[in-house]
Amino acid sequence: MTFLERLQIGAVVAGLSLTMLPATQAAAQAAASSATVTVSPEEARAIAKDAYLYAYPMLFNYKTLYQQAVDPGSKAYVGGFDKFRHYSQPYGPDNKEIVTPNNDTPYSWAWLDLRREPLILSVPAVPKDRYYSFQCVDMYTYNFAYIGSRATGSEAGRYLFAGPNWHGETPKGIDKVIRSESDLILVLGRTVLNGSSDVKNVQAIQKQYKLTPLSTFEHTGAPPPSPKINFPKWDEAKATSVDFIAYLNFLLQFTQPPAPSEAELMQRFGKIGIAPGALFDPAALPPETRVALEAGVADGKAALADAEKHTTGSFDLFGTREQMKDDYVKRAVAAAMGIYGNTKEEAVYVGTHVNGEHEQLVGTQPYVLHFDKKDLPPAKFFWSMTLYDLPARHLVANPINRYSIGDRTKGLKYGADGSLDIYVQNTSPGAEKTSNWLPAPAGAYDLITRIYGPNQAVLDGSWKFPEPQKR
């Protein structure tokens, strides 16, 4: 037996355990804790690479969950689970909770804990000319459902969210039951804002978004409280090291048994100590094992960075489990470049960080983006272009406080032939062009256009985003 084969996964990382576990999860934890790793350092490295890419979106999903629902000291704290925090102003450069934030539709954030019982989302009738949506994201970061203008229409409705262990009947008065693969989910609302004068209208709609426990909705006794969770403190340095395994094991407890397509994958991951609720202590690893796992994490990071360089659109980055087809590299790229992006039928993100000569875009070089009338972004609802600095991918402070530009921008000037020029640069392009100016930082940036309600030309790739041309 090799030194690696004698490794026992049994010590717990401080703060990465649950106060209580359901019986099935406790059994899984006990089994995982006594498992022996039986792979060579070479195989451990290969498994760690794939496992890191698999875990990456879940880790950064947990980062947002922890900051918004667990840590009261966080600026992003929404007040805990099962409640909304609404924003009625567009994001600006001071908002750094997530990367590549949407600057057109103020968010309504809610994290739901479905272990105890389902929750019901009630939405009001929304004017047909005002876009809104609720994107439903599970722990894997799959967009497993949508509610809103495109998916369910503008009428009022009640939608029941059920976790993997709820098997009740649909109550009267519920328009649809939406089932999740995980007990903890994100419900992310977007309500379009048409300028600062429209804030009160958005707020009036947001106040009517309601979350109600099923027992309250049916006027019955509430189920017993769910076991308390000891959430591990978010530590990005740990989460992006070999310690990612401890975070992943914690998160897997809140998912249903592996999907059929992942059964073999989870068996493979189990060879390096990955399992729902398994206790993992990297300090207990033999030196050669830890070196192999660390190398695997580095391989995963390199593969992710390379994949990001070759990604310029969101066409297939987001969606349901079925739509993503077990492409875990693509799922990781989505989280790295813009976690919580929309499924393509809802909205498509296209853009670039290089010009036609494949040079990095920088604000000191003025560019123009030209759209012929027939080539304007085809959107059923609206389109918007936003600029983000690199590598942070945040909005950029600028003298005219403009963080996006699009078909709803007041004063946008079109050519006599219906064409449109957008000027992207660090300094003003001149008074006559300010209406069409998207300010850029002096350094590197990424340019993303969001098309809400894209038509078939966008979805099949026949519509092309124009290359930035040097001025």
TrEMBL record:
Residues 82-213 form the DUF1254 domain. SUPFAM superfamilies: VPA0735-like. Residues 1-26 form the signal peptide. Keywords: Signal. Residues 346-456 form the DUF1214 domain. Pfam families: DUF1214, DUF1254. This is DUF1254 domain-containing protein. It comes from Paraburkholderia domus.
